[in-house]
């Protein structure tokens, strides 16, 4: 029917598979169990990607007690057993069996959301059907048809017919002979019009009370008269079902514009309705015409996108109703739509109504006023007042001095004289007009129904269930979120007292047992998960087993003997940690101090001491695997222990030329490592080195490694005299930094010693020494050494260097074919193996390089050496290596990597790793070879859990973006952000794997991922984003209150415009990040609008900017300064002179504005030299008053200084080898797939006749 009526919310995947009511685990990620039921104590249904329409209908059927109990009454003799499903000789009716199991799971299993995977499998649906979009009204008919076909030949063959079947009779009466032609039509649901109709009662009136006349040129051929005659056509309800389903025709087609549209006007429907005026006159009791509303399926969105959820009345009181926060606030009553109703000129309406009510013996249904003829009125009321729907109730309410209405406003009576307030009681009504449903919903009706004192309403929105109030139903009368299907039940149907609050009522015993087993398994899983999540491992370093060397802690014996591992709940306090340590270290005596430490290349260093006994480990930020030093708080081995970041030890490489050697030849340096605290001044460093090297302090010269002057040299810069008072930290000396120590007296004759005002380079000759480190582990002889220096030349083969290294390292000759040489970068990482059939120069190896001799083979010319990491947390995962042929496909490479990593299953895919060490673009083309994708040796891949999005779909990370300076209502903004933060905490949303930028005034919060078709529109994307768990409870009236940005380097760069434009037009990639910004007013940007954020002028003497405002202007105003100037002048009322400064680039554009208009050509601010983009900050100031003010802030100064430091660090970088590739990764994207044609919804049913 309508193929794309909604977009789905991204529900949590942690749902117990309904295949396993017996307790099997399925679909868990890292042992995360399904969440338990919420405060409402009712279970939702997980969305499979496009099944919100199915979820809403299933919840309605579940809370139809008569349908649920009739389904449960069908036993194995009727339906068979699921264990025999694969047996071709058995007649297993899978659909009703799976529906039984799903209902039992929803009623009894303690989980937030149940899965419909097995039910949809029984329908014959695949993943395509589960993600396709269908209409719930169409599903209602198809599902009932499938159930009828499945129950043929069973005791429940008439289940649907008994509960939902009704009949309509169409009559045509000949005005000449009186012959009546009848035709009866059966129905399971009634479809009523919404267009040009204001209420359900009016729609039913037009269908079953109004008559259509055949006259003039439109005559009817009477079968009795055998000629064309005048006739009247009418329809009546002949047979009423126990449950009346009403479908509202909200979607129509505009034949003029040739497009669909949704009727969003106000359309009311009652909570209780009397169908007697629309039925044939029969012998039914009056109570059988009365129906009460118990379910409303709601569609949110437009005709091209949206979402379904359902309001349901909990008749059996299975859930726990509680008032929402917003329900506790006093809501003012709605004003009447009209103060009075203008009636056509006729007799006094009050007099006429008084006569009508008096004739009906005290009471009269309000709906019956339009049918009752009076002698003084010659026509029916509806003929005169057909254009005033609902006029009766409005008129009666406006005349309280004459009429009084019942509590439900369905009945009216004359007000007795002398009575100020009076509510009619049922026993005062006439027997012909008895209305047992008019009492309030919370009143009891008989002893059998005494427990059902009050039935409340709940909102079932896929996996979320929330209580609502009855008045909230009125909010669904109109708008983008409005009622789509209505479900009524006869008021005379009463529930037994045993069903009240009893979810297991009439549930089969085998399903009760399976639900009990599932609950036990879920409880076990939650206990395991709680233990895994909250328990953390701590490494306790016992102080009495440590000693102080060079101001750093070192174990007395071995590291293993000095460390004790302790597992503790992160929610424990410091006092509880201390008690646990005391219990573990039973030998400890005296005071105990706990300090957080960290392992450094120099040794163990104390960071800070845990003093607040009531703080939890979680609040203190102590991570899993932290090092805790246990000591007495005073000394270790009689020495004071330095603590804090200011005295953190730094391990320096001290280089000293050998005796008689030229200091410029680095091959002849002695190297050793010395530890100094960061706060040590250079004067103390010189004194310490003078004692250890034997060089007199007066002639000792310290040099720091500076920028390299060429590829074969290192530059040294001597420290100045005034530098001796500065610390090691001031010169950014870190672990591994090199310091050259020279004796000025011994080297002065050679010249070239670095002086205070310059730097001298040390040149390497064509012959050099390469350091080879042994990484062969246990496969070496006893005489093997850790490292050796090999003298080599540029023309020497790598294989010869390897052979010489094996000889000097005293390694076994058998290792020659099972080892390889790998270059080491300055961080100690092993790079890909070096080819052995080339020279050192051809391998691009410097003669001062450090190589590692490692186990493994050397890749051939047709093989690739690849790194790979498992999982999404790349920082915490260890990097592994694999060698594959360059001709293998991505699919084959994935299998090889899975075998290497010990991974099983099909839910894995490969991604590239970008230069930021983050997961990049996915390798979507599974049959393409690695060579065709330009993957080279040394490239890094990421194997990530989860299947790739289907072809034509995008998986977009979504962030919430808010700039504090852009909001003119910071309190509103802070409330929204606090609400989102609380929601993320409740959902256990973590941003530890997402890099959040540290930008002043910019806040980004990771909300989750959205999977959506590339053919969907921008409006569909915003609608689906609002269904993310962290955003669902935000008060956003429509998608016009959201602004979507494209993020580049975690900064907003471009606004997505035009809600009807498809996402494929924006050229979004699979790794494109989207940011959503909350707005306080509607915004619908067209393609001709440009956005700039203006910053007001700075205050006098202030270094902070005033809050900014958003300003929009069309291209018709001009893309240059003229357009900006006109907009600024209108905004700030600057009528003389002002200056516009692009704060982002500090480029000035000055424009003078006077009262006299001058025509001149202006350059575009989007072009050179300004290149302004959307979201750039533009400063505005009055040159006459504020010319001396500057737009830069202290944050700008800090940012500029950081940029300078980063540039200096890049210049000083000595990284020798970079990852190389023959060409950049391909940017080609698969062509966007065109929208698939809509496929009719179907359910496959076996043959049981």
Q: What characteristics describe this protein?
A:
1249 residues; alpha+beta; Cathepsin B, Chain A; Ubiquitin-like (UB roll); 8 domains; eight-stranded mixed beta sheet; six-stranded mixed beta sheet; elongated; disordered N terminus
What is this entry, summarized?
The protein is α+β, with helices and mostly antiparallel strands and 1249 residues long. α4 packs across α13.
Query: Would you tell me the overall average pLDDT?
Result: 76
**Radius of gyration (Å):** 41 Å
Strand content: 25-35%
Q: Give the number of helices.
A: 24
Shape verdict? elongated
The end-to-end distance, rounded to whole angstroms, is 29 Å
Uncertain stretches of 5 or more adjacent residues: 1-29, 326-347, 370-389, 418-452, 708-712, 748-752, 755-765, 778-783, 989-1000, 1094-1102, 1115-1119, 1133-1162, ...
What is the structural class?
alpha+beta
Q: How would you characterize the overall build of this protein?
A:
- With 1249 residues, the protein is α+β, with helices and mostly antiparallel strands.
- The protein has 8 domains: 44-160 and 459-480 and 488-525, no CATH class; 166-322, Cysteine proteinases (Cathepsin B, Chain A, Alpha-Beta Complex); 534-646, Ubiquitin-like (UB roll) (Roll), CATH 3.10.20.90; 648-743, Phosphatidylinositol 3-kinase Catalytic Subunit, Chain A, domain 1 (Ubiquitin-like (UB roll), Roll), CATH 3.10.20.90; 767-775 and 786-858, Roll (Ubiquitin-like (UB roll)), CATH 3.10.20; 860-948, Ubiquitin-like (UB roll), CATH 3.10.20; 951-1087, Roll (Ubiquitin-like (UB roll)); 1090-1151 and 1162-1209 and 1234-1248, no CATH class.
- The chain is 19% helix and 27% strand.
- It contains 24 helices and 54 strands.
- The strands form 13 sheets. Strands 5, 10, 13, 14, 15, 19, 20 and 21 form an 8-stranded mixed beta sheet that branches. The protein has a 6-stranded mixed beta sheet with strand order 30-29-33-31-32-34.
- Helix 4 (94-108) crosses helix 13.
- The longest helix is centred in the middle third of the chain and has 26 residues, at 509-534.
- It is elongated and about 135 Å long.
- It starts with 43 loop residues before the first strand and ends in a 37-residue tail after the last helix.
- The N terminus is likely disordered.
